[in-house]
Amino acid sequence: MVKGPGLYTEIGKKARDLLYRDYQGDQKFSVTTYSSTGVAITTTGTNKGSLFLGDVATQVKNKNFTADVKVSTDSSLLTTLTFDEPAPGLKVIVQAKLPDHKSGKAEVQYFHDYAGISTSVGFTATPIVNFSGVVGTNGLSLGTDVAYNTESGNFKHFNAGFNFTKDDLIASLILNDKGEKLNASYYQIVSPSTVVGAEISHNFTTKENAITVGTQHALDPLTTVKARVNNAGVANALIQHEWRPKSFFTVSGEVDSKAIDKSAKVGIALALKP
């Protein structure tokens, strides 16, 4: 259903996915199965040192309605109900997490050829109201993201972003934390098998800068390698292989050049789907 400039979360997403997605230092395993009625059940386990986290998620789809229920080892129950296109261009999402009775919220998204709007409100007496909107085209878009706390009467956050896309290049500029931080990102397809990207962040209060550059290359249609490095001297690399359709095996590593005496961090992820 997504068309036009998309939602605010799409601004800079390509660069973020290139630089941060799939990198991890833990051991993660997930397996998805489908019942004869089409119900999807996904079991996930993550080993974080001496801590093990797990969850079981169930998804049921019926035409334009989707219900997701996730039970986690922290005794929480997350329920998400999604209604796709109850009216043209519209999506409605209702979400709640128990036992946190203040977590419930409703979100309405609207997609247009020249705009993307999302607004959400919590199910409390004094909720936090979120609004984000983007106007433009697939090539050029401007957007803002605002959260207002009705209890305190203050803005929780106020962000603005700009996205430019032309052929194989995407450039984004985002102002976060009420104008305190500026993020600029760049993503480019340099060949059918290789992409490069970079992100620069500046904090106007602390005067600190952060720079991350990365690349991705497809060794073959089923195997991808990625690498990134930042100005703090931390380098990461991963290799991901799709050994069967929708099933991935990923090995990633991290080395800190300023603490070379310490062991490198290694993460392994295995995702199985029928």
Automatic annotation (TrEMBL):
Domain of life: Eukaryota
Single GO BP term: response to bacterium
Keyword Ion transport: yes
Signal peptide: none
Annotated Gene Ontology cellular component terms: mitochondrial outer membrane; pore complex
GO MF term set: porin activity; voltage-gated monoatomic anion channel activity
Keyword Glycosyltransferase in record: no
Transmembrane segments: none
Gene3D superfamilies: Porin
Protein localization: Membrane
Keyword set, alphabetical order: Ion transport, Membrane, Porin, Transmembrane, Transmembrane beta strand, Transport
InterPro entries: Porin_dom_sf, Porin_Euk, Porin_Euk/Tom40
PANTHER family on file: MITOCHONDRIAL OUTER MEMBRANE PROTEIN PORIN 3, VOLTAGE-DEPENDENT ANION-SELECTIVE CHANNEL
Family: Belongs to the eukaryotic mitochondrial porin (TC 1.B.8.1) family.
Name of the protein: Eukaryotic porin/Tom40
